[in-house]
Design brief:
Helices cover 0% and strands 56% of the residues. The chain has no helices and 16 strands. The mean pLDDT is 86.
Length: 202
């Protein structure tokens, strides 16, 4: 594990995995790109309001018995409020996102898209679309803004980035499709109860 210095405030920031592309300082909110084993402070500085959560950067524990460590977090804002997505590294090297919205958790994993996805404008709540080999009933369609984040992330983000998204259900599986100007991302997940998340004692 490398330890780099925040170019804004000088804090020591550990980088746990070689797949990290962006580091967001937990102390001053500076977003920096990881280039050639050094931090380039090209991103904005955003201090997010703290919220009452059982998770924070560096938290370790188990998710349904599988060990994890929290590496990063993104906050999305929309017309009715906001939600946080915690970036987890599992013991086997896999990555998961744990979405937290008003105390409720959903575990998501990124999936490859193997079939055409209709344009965002053509998808309607209450309709069904085919995604890969799944028939997905659409339950929500909305727009959100990335307010900011913390810790280490595997892709480049900038506070203020806009995303369009739809959520759906396919035979008990929860699907989230995110549309950005550059790409479409698919995540498949399931609801997680609080007692399925066990934290290590700090």
């Amino acid at each position: 594990m490398d330890s780099l210095t925040c170019p804004s405030c000088g804090a020591s920031l550990p980088v746990e995995t070689r797949f990290v592309k962006v580091v967001i300082c937990e102390y001053c909110g500076q977003s920096s790109l990881l280039k050639n084993r050094s931090l380039d402070p090209t991103g904005e500085k955003v201090n997010l309001a703290s919220v009452d959560s059982i998770l924070k950067i560096g938290t370790t524990g188990t998710l349904r018995g599988e060990p994890f460590k929290v590496l990063g977090m993104l906050r999305y804002s929309y017309e009715d409020g906001f939600w946080d997505e915690w970036f987890l590294e599992l013991q086997n090297g896999k990555k998961r996102w744990l979405q937290e919205d008003e105390g409720e958790f959903t575990s998501f994993g990124k999936e490859s898209i193997t079939s055409p996805i209709p344009p965002y404008k053509d998808i309607n709540v209450g309709s069904s679309i085919q995604v890969n080999d799944l028939n997905v009933f659409i339950t929500e369609k909305n727009r959100a803004t990335i307010s900011g984040g913390l810790g280490r992330l595997m892709f480049q983000i900038s506070p203020g980035d806009k995303v369009e998204y739809v959520d759906g259900n396919a035979s008990g599986k929860l699907l989230a499709i995110e549309f950005t100007p550059e790409e479409i991302n698919l995540s498949i997940g399931e609801s997680i109860s609080l007692d399925e998340i066990e934290l290590d004692e700090s």
